[in-house]
Amino acid sequence: MVRLTVHLIAKSSNHSKTCRSESLQQYLKKLTHLNFSNKSIEDIDDLSICRNLTVLYLYDNQISQICNLGFASNLTHLYMQNNNISCIENLSSLHNLSKLFLGGNSITVVEGLEELKSLKELHVEGQKLPRGEKLVFDPRSISSLSETLCILNICKNNIDEIWDLAPLRKLAHLFAADNQLQDIKELETVFSQWSQLRLLDLSRNPVCHKPKYRDRLITVCKILEDLDGKQINELSRQFLINWKASKDAKKKLEDEKDVRGQITNPLTTDIQRGPPHDRSSSLRKPSEFGKPDVTFRIDRVQADSRGGRSRGLNIPMRSGRL
């Protein structure tokens, strides 16, 4: 097992050049940049003597756990991409860390970042995930980064939604290519909350094939300068914004007309159908059926031209009606 130790550092060429003029201890105390990338390192030993360390390169190794970095309170850049890390941990002391590179590991949950109050860049692209799983985000970490994080790289992580990232209102660059994003309305809702978004890469996501995909996102992202590697012309942006405003105004006017029509003519539908049919006017009561006709004889005495009486008039009528 290859461990990163002070003795391994002592063998580095940088110290060899300065070892004649200062001791190893003096050299380690003054050290600000340490590059041990691609050295087959599997573990990090106690390096607390390197208290002024600001940049640490440990990418392309075989490290499986982030550990023994609690001393590095001055660390601003940490490069640990392409290792075997499965959990983001033991970073709570790195209050000055501004850039964290963890791409190409085996991380399934973005977590453990609550104390990184200065973090501006987070790179977690291309995690080696189990089949069918996606990279997920701990709401506590996302909330803690809402006022600082400017650049986020989550490419190639099988991500199919970004609701959990909505609190990142300071985000200026989002790299999310090669994922499974497909809901254009969700993207519009989230991006509309990111007023500082200038660069956006969603290439090779299913959503890219939606109708008016590019136009809709350019309209929502008011200051976006680059979408999927293509620059945005300001004239085109203004045309799309004006077109959307005109379309929305027209729809609002039509909706208002429909509402006014329903208020002023509430019985329009009933008038078109006609008045309700009164069945009682055309149907006899059950008791009226089956009765025989009754003839009433009305005798009137009239003088005819010869002074005689006229015959009585026989008027057939049904019982109950005159």
UniProtKB/TrEMBL annotation:
Residues 254-322 are annotated as: Disordered. It holds the Pfam family LRR_4. InterPro entries: Leu-rich_rpt, Leu-rich_rpt_4, LRR_dom_sf, SDS22/Internalin_LRR. SUPFAM superfamilies: L domain-like (SSF52058). Residues 275-307 have a biased composition (Basic and acidic residues). The keyword Transmembrane does not apply. Signal peptide: none annotated. The keyword Repeat applies. PROSITE patterns: LRR. Keywords: Leucine-rich repeat, Repeat. Gene3D superfamilies: Ribonuclease Inhibitor. Residues 262-271 have a biased composition (Polar residues). It comes from the Eukaryota. PANTHER family: LEUCINE-RICH REPEAT AND IQ DOMAIN-CONTAINING PROTEIN 1-RELATED, LEUCINE-RICH REPEAT-CONTAINING PROTEIN 9. This is Protein phosphatase 1 regulatory subunit 42. The lineage of its organism: Eukaryota, Metazoa, Chordata, Craniata, Vertebrata.
